[in-house]
Amino acid sequence: MSAKQTLTTLIMALALIAVGTIAAAGDVPEQVSLDTMAKLFNGVEFDHAMHTDLGEDCSACHHHTTGTGTSNERCMGCHAGSDEATTVRCSGCHVAEPFSAKHINRDASNRYQFHIDMPGLKAAYHWNCVGCHEQMDGPTGCQDCHTRTTAGDDFYQINVVHAEAAGRGGH
Amino acid sequence: MSGISRRRFLAASVAGCAATTLAGPRKALASGTFSGYPDGMGVLVDLTRCVGCRSCEAACNKEQKLPAPDRPFDDMSVFDETFHDGKQKRRPDENAYTVVNRYNPEGGAPVYRKVQCNHCNEPACLSSCFVNAYTKTEEGAVVYNSKVCVGCRTCMVACPFHVPAYSYSSSLDPVIKKCIFCYDTRLKNGLPPACVDICPQEALTFGKRKDLIKIGHQRIETHPGRYVARLYGEKELGGTSWMYLAPVAFDQVGFDPTPGNEPIINNVKDFLGTVPMVLAIWPAMFTGFHLLAKKQKGHDDHEHDAEQQQGEDGGEQ
Amino acid sequence: MKSLIGWGVKPVDSHVNEKNDKAWTFKQKLFLGLTPGQYLGQALRNPFNWILGIIFAVGLPLIAYRYFFGLGAVTHASNDYPWGLFLGFGLFVMVPLSASGFMLGTTVEIFGRHDFEPIERLALLNGLLGYFFAVVYLLIDLGQPWRLPYPMFVSFGPAAVLFLVAWHVATYLSVQVAEVSVSFFEWIGWLGGKRFIRRIAIGLTVSGIILSTLHQGALGALFNYAPGKVHPLWYSPFQWIHFFCSSIPAGLCMVIVVSTIVKKTMAWRCDSNFSDNLDRCTLGLAKGASLALITYLVIKLIGIAHDNEWGYLATGWGAWFLLEMAVGVVLPIILFAYAIRHQVVKVARLGAMITVLGIALNRLNTALIAFNWQLYQEIPHIFEVIIAVTIFAIYIVVYRFILYRLPILYSWKAQPEEALAAEAVRPAPIRTTPSPAGAMYRKID
Fold first, then answer.
1. B289 contacts in chain C (CB < 8 Å)
2. Residue C212: in which H helix or E strand, if any?
3. Does A16 have pLDDT greater than 70?
4. ipTM of the predicted structure?
């Protein structure tokens, strides 16, 4: 084995380790940035570590994808013994634009019977977070998690002065 | 029926026949029904998912460039607004093409209902419009051409959902105003309407109407106890592009529980069908009566009959 | 006017002024042969004109106000009640009350009942003006009245019931203008025009029947667009038959009402042919109206039975419906029956008045009161009421203006020389010259 070969192997080994470390870190991130509505609301720095510390099973949020099994009866039919999925990130399955023409017209033969009604990323976040927060007495107000941007303030027209204008709504 | 709209076809046939009679070809309409374009889009509104955030109202306001609202869109006090001695909740009008109302069904959590045009398969507004201002597009939207709107407001009378509104405040250009499914800016380009896009809860599911029907039934089946077993708009009034799922009986959240499955136009088909008959039969019948009446007269006095004839048909001094 | 006649003034009823054997000028005809001073005097002496004046003083500015500030400024017409008083009264009440034109046209021209001729012209005029003012109300109510010709020329919605209404009312208006123009041609002295109309009279009348049947019915069919909004007692799948059928007594009774008013207030303008035959004609019309009312009552009952709506009769709406039926339909039937049996014209006139109000109530109920019965009740804006009254006042003024002048209530006295001259200049007669006996038969000629 020449010095050159040794060096190459060493570099490759180092590289592998490095990649492995990053991959391991990516598997259980400390923080997750959620910014699907970044225009109107500031992104959420989701404290993943804190939420994992709450002691819930991963499947509470990640369904069957973490390989820890699932308690949902409807999922168990297929996923009772599922291994860890290739991607565990929410956006791996829940698309950011569920109503794009591309997604709506995706090849029907690739759609699993139970997955045709899968929520998009934004809905997945809200259902998961708010649903649990309601049970656990976590924050549930919109701006408890994500504060509104100036664009958001404009969007919701928070600066309009309320006038008892007649003929609105009822007429 | 895909490329050419039924209305257009009829209009063309009418134009062709107009020379013959004034109203004869109207009969053509009295036959057949239309159940929507095969790939028409729709929206499934799931009232169990709506949290009443009013983001859809804000998005609609922005997308359709509507005037500023009376209250901010994050002001939830609008849910307490009622009109006409508490008999009416908010409804779409010229300044808001969609509104969300809150209902408090007996012994349950509040339910929020979004109201907007339901984009019927056979729209009552369209079939009642005497200037043909409305069009049901292939994409499923019911749009209208304000440039020909005379302002008779028959579409408002006809709409079973109380949707079209009128800009009564305008003196020079008052027209009908209603939700158009964001047709011009979005639907036409394959995009979902602004309200669907903004909804944080996916209470609004955008898709092909035929797929949404499947999804709707699937939700009812897979979540026993969550929904009443009815997909409102699948068949009601001939079917609508926007359909609803609700956790409680529909009359508890402001819907007409028994609108029937016939499209509104079926109610006037009988009358429209009699039009050509009247046109064809009346002239012969009454001319016949006229001749009979004259014969009778002449029976006893032939001399007089001849004179009368002249007197009637142009006799002068 | 009465006092002027007392002083020996005779209103124009022929081409030639009897006093100086000179032909009346057009201006003189307009002033009824009075001097402008005399005319103004009689107008000012009439207290009714003062009432009209007050109505116009308030109403006309309001009409202008409506066009400057939009419908929202003068009506309570809302998104739930798109049609207010302008259509509820102006269109849906005025049109059935104007069915008189085609009814009397049919009676006289088609069935050859020339005994009704003395009142035929009044019925035709009543029809024309009623329709014309229904259109005027429409022009007030339409958001963009300048687009009224759109369904005719710009954009066609032939599958809509309103398209049919628009076309038929427009066509029927022209038919009625033609029918009434006979009087006008007599008045201006253009016999050619009159001859032409007489020649096509049968055609006009038959087309009048067709158009009337269809659009009287179509007005009813308009409510078939709103099956969930009109109260079931006022709604029927056969709404068009209900509307058509009830327009018959409405039109006939409107003629009785108008002729009664005319006889009282315009006796100077009525000639003996009109006045002497009026009682007989009134009873005849009452007979027709009562038959139509009975038919209407039966249809109404069948309507309730057909849709099995008996349960609704026990509700408040049911009481209101029964009141409408009892007062607007059954009571007139009884009055007419009494009047015809005992030949009491006064009772027939009372019955006619009640019928007119009854049918008007039916239309208002359908279009406004029992409309949106599950929502809330819209009360018309006070400006809306004033404008509706103002238009009706204009209707009365125009009606009176025409009755004063055109030979509707009286026969135009043609001068023999003039008649001969007219025959002489007649270009290439298509028909043989009618015999004098033929002309004699027609009293009006």
1. 110-111
2. helix C201-221
3. no
4. 0.85
